[in-house]
Amino acid sequence: MSPAGDVPAQMTAAYITEPGTADAIRVGPLPTPRPAADQVLVRTEALVVNHVDTFVRSGAYRTALPSPFVIGRDLVGTVVQVGSTATGFAVGDRVWCNSLGHGGRQGSFAQYAAVPAERLYRLPDGVDAESAAVVLHTAATAHLGLFREAGLRLGETIIVGGAAGGVGSCVVQLAAAAGARVIATARPDDADWCRGCGAAEVVDYRDPELFARLAELAPDGADVYWDNAGVHDLEHAVPLLARRGRIIAMAGMSATPTLPVGQLYVRDASIRGFAISNAGVDDLAAAAKVVNHGLKSGILKARIADRLPLAQAADAHRRQEAGPHGRILVVP
Ligand SMILES: NC(=O)c1ccc[n+]([C@@H]2O[C@H](COP(=O)([O-])OP(=O)(O)OC[C@H]3O[C@@H](n4cnc5c(N)ncnc54)[C@H](OP(=O)(O)O)[C@@H]3O)[C@@H](O)[C@H]2O)c1
Fold first, then answer.
1. Which of 11, 171, 219, 236 is the most exposed place for a label (fewest CB within 10 A)?
2. Which atom of ligand 1 lies closest to the CA of 163?
3. How far apart, in whole angstroms, are the C-alpha atoms of residue 16 and residue 102?
């Protein structure tokens, strides 16, 4: 292992001892993790709250958790120690990870985190920690849905529902950058943001004629339909699809929509569901390349709704659960 340098024996962490509301989150000292041979110890610089972090904390998303469990999935930071068999990293490297805090792994909401080297990626030069942190989960999700699941191609048309949110913004940004025509739904206040992300058209999702408007804007049908709000009005969405259209399902855990089966199969259409939590290290590494390209090129960006210290991790979760208009950053 590389020299420990001035890594303290204890660190401040936000953790739970059992699932519960945000009130279950404690902030206090825990032993600084010692990286295993295949891990890298990272001193964190920027953290962010995702919806899934609140589901893991509450127990709504069941996954193996150590106890005490440090909450949080994503981090940006600097390498301070490298395990003996961990390759590709050196002390001082600026790095990021977006797959801690589930599947038995400790989370990221602490001053230090031991990260498996295969889940750690270099932060591109010139990219600041906060700008990166706010898109790590959302952009990787957008990449998996658009390219692994939907197989989006140049010149295709995609309808993005709830396009101004965390994932929606990244879906618009990556789809537009890939040469797709993007039709977004968002509240009118967010129309300029969506256009800035690359949407060709923006429709108010509360418009009573929403689906008629979408049909007018996609007269040849939509190749991909992606609903970030989890509403899944399939009775109206499926008839909007072009031949071989793909609906992406990635939100709306308890939605039980009516599916117009005939409208689906006569189009050779399909519904593809996925959860990034199931992605393996190869898929995550492929997404990381896209995230880094998007950060370097400026394609990927997000709005920051709030910036809270780690001591206020519970408030950060409450803010996320209240539905913030932008991303909630946490500064360790
Ligand atoms: N499956 C996966 O791998 C995966 C990964 C990441 C996230 N997710 C899930 O994806 C969903 C979105 O995540 P996020 O981080 O993007 O959340 P978010 O930032 O809260 O965005 C949700 C968006 O939906 C919009 N919206 C609300 N009601 C709507 C409606 N009736 N019609 C259209 N849009 C509506 C919101 O608009 P307003 O601001 O106007 O309310 C907001 O822009 C969450 O359920 C999350 O758990 C799943």
1. 219
2. 43
3. 13
